[in-house]
């Protein structure tokens, strides 16, 4: 941000349809990172924020990745918890678990789909560029992850529902827990609708609008805070007008 005109790199073409970071351009944060780690450092077993995709490009150095398709992490649980880190002995003893064990060389890019747990080691001193992002292809999964987190927070706060500000506190704690709340998610959808309306001549944006409508309708089928349902209905009407005016 200190040097907005300096283009250190160009996002690979396949990862350019990035709703998350386009939305964050006017926010105080983004999901673009440079990771630097000496040989032997590692990232613990995790799935990426919000249920997003991620890509990681090695500038220099080599990495080892363990990647587990969605659901396989359940087979790793110990005492009903997913382990913080898999040791080499744990990996050698994995049975009936599907996973990929990949060495990433300098200049190579790894794509991590939504919901894939992964653990990473720096085999050498390493620098990499990484983005988290989502778009029309995984936005419904992003909603599922957010709504599940919302229900988890609601359960934890269930004994406070008698207070007038319960819904406000729910959204505050959901953002603290998950990194995003229901209203912020709707803000992202609204920003995509506004963009598609400006560029409605493109087939891609027409397809995006249909996906956005489907997500909004899915949201309306869920239990939502006061006021949010009305805002979603307004957005659906806006999308319907978009198709009417094509």
Strand order of the largest sheet: 1-8-3-6
| CATH class type of the largest domain | Mainly Beta
Radius of gyration: 20 Å
Q: Distance between the terminal alpha carbons, to the nearest Å?
A: 38 Å
Q: If you consult CATH, what is the topology of the largest domain?
A: Jelly Rolls
Order of helices and strands: HEEEEHEEEEHHHHH
Secondary structure tally: strands: 8
Number of helices: 7
| Beta-strand content bin | 15-25%
What is the name of the CATH architecture of the largest domain? Sandwich
Low-confidence stretches: none
Average pLDDT, to the nearest integer? 91
Summed up, the domain count is 2
Main β-sheet description: 4 strands, antiparallel
Q: Outline, from the CA principal axes?
A: globular
Give the full name of the CATH homologous superfamily of the largest domain.
Cupin
Helix content class: 25-40%
Structural classification: alpha+beta
């Amino acid at each position: 941000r200190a040097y907005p005109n300096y283009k250190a790199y160009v996002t690979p073409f396949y990862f350019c349809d990035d709703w998350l970071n386009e939305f964050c351009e006017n926010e105080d944060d983004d999901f673009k990172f440079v990771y630097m780690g000496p040989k032997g450092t590692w990232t613990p077993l995790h799935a990426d924020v919000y249920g997003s995709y991620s890509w990681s490009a090695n500038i220099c150095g080599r990495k080892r990745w363990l990647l587990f398709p969605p659901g396989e992490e359940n087979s790793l649980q110990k005492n009903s918890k997913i382990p913080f880190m898999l040791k080499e002995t744990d990996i050698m003893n994995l049975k009936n678990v599907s996973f990929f064990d990949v060495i990433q060389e300098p200049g190579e890019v790894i794509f991590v789909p939504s919901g894939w747990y992964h653990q990473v080691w720096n085999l050498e001193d390493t620098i990499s560029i990484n983005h988290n992002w989502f778009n029309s292809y995984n936005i419904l999964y992003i909603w599922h992850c957010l709504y599940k987190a919302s229900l988890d927070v609601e359960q934890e706060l269930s004994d406070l529902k008698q207070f007038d500000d319960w819904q406000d506190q729910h959204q505050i704690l959901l953002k603290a827990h998950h990194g995003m709340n229901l209203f912020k998610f709707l803000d992202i959808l609204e920003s995509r609708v506004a963009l598609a309306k400006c560029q409605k001549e493109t087939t891609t944006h027409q397809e995006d609008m249909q996906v956005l409508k489907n997500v909004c309708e899915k949201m309306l089928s869920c239990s939502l805070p006061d006021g949010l349902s009305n805002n979603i209905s307004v957005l659906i009407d806006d999308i319907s007008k978009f198709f009417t005016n094509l």
